[in-house]
Amino acid sequence: MRIIRYMERDDGPPRLAAVTDDGRAYALEEPDLMTLVRRADKEGIAPSEAVRREIEGARPLAEDWRSLNLLVPVEAPEVWASGVTYERSKEARNEESQGAAGQETVYDKVYRAERPEIFFKSTAARTVGPNRPVCIRSDSSWQVPEPELGLVLDSRGRIIGYTVGNDMSSRDIEGENPLYLPQAKIWRHSCAIGPAVRLAETVANPYNLTIELRIYRGGELAVRESASTGQLRRKLDELVSYLARDNVLFDGTVLLTGTCIVPPGRFTLQPGDRIEIDITGIGTLVNPVAAASDFAAKN
Ligand code: DO4
Ligand code: MG
Question: Which end of the chain, N or C, is less surrounded by CB atoms within 10 Å?
Fold first, then answer.
């Protein structure tokens, strides 16, 4: 069972809907996912069961949920991200920072340390949903999408569901000096999430999901790579417990779990590219790429 947000009209209010496994969408009366979760808590049932009861006998809003005008599935007040949780990320970062041969780098250390790397990634104002442009910054010449499994949390640190995330990253800024990480990670529309939140209790094994990245340039497939969450070096609960430690969590916080895919060589995003990130059972997050200069004018 998946949860989406959509708009009926361009000037209409955001609405919530459920997507069943056959791809049909059903309108829900709750204004957002966390209201649904609180109602299910009060009734002592799982959110997916609350949804099942609510949509029983209803007519679908759409036969194919992808035909709706989709928004971010959850308005995450904060997005946090985990780093160097896959070997591929460690290798790519060692390359871009040109770590001296034979010497242990910060990336080698954090990959095997007990404490994971967790950093602040985005706010609701910087995060875009499906089909909205992500932005590439003007002072970097090496930028890539980072396809990541996103955990949707409540204020108690429970994993409510899973979404697809894109941790847009500037490889040359981070590669110059890891202390530049906030600038390599956070700028206008540098984070995308969506298209749906899959309710956690409806995922049999979150360590067995395929993540695929496709990047189209001029309509042609330029990059296609896939990996599995089975390659994650950390446990999801472990990442959440470090984020929650002596911290304040808000309902709807998203924690990205790190990238397992890095486009090859010097590949860099360009305005006009189209990014597609697919995770089993959640859906495909599609975003066009815009230059910062276009972006201010168009959005
Ligand atoms: O260490 C810097 C960031 C790592 C990251 O974003 C990732 O591994 O996905
Ligand atoms: Mg990342």
Answer: C
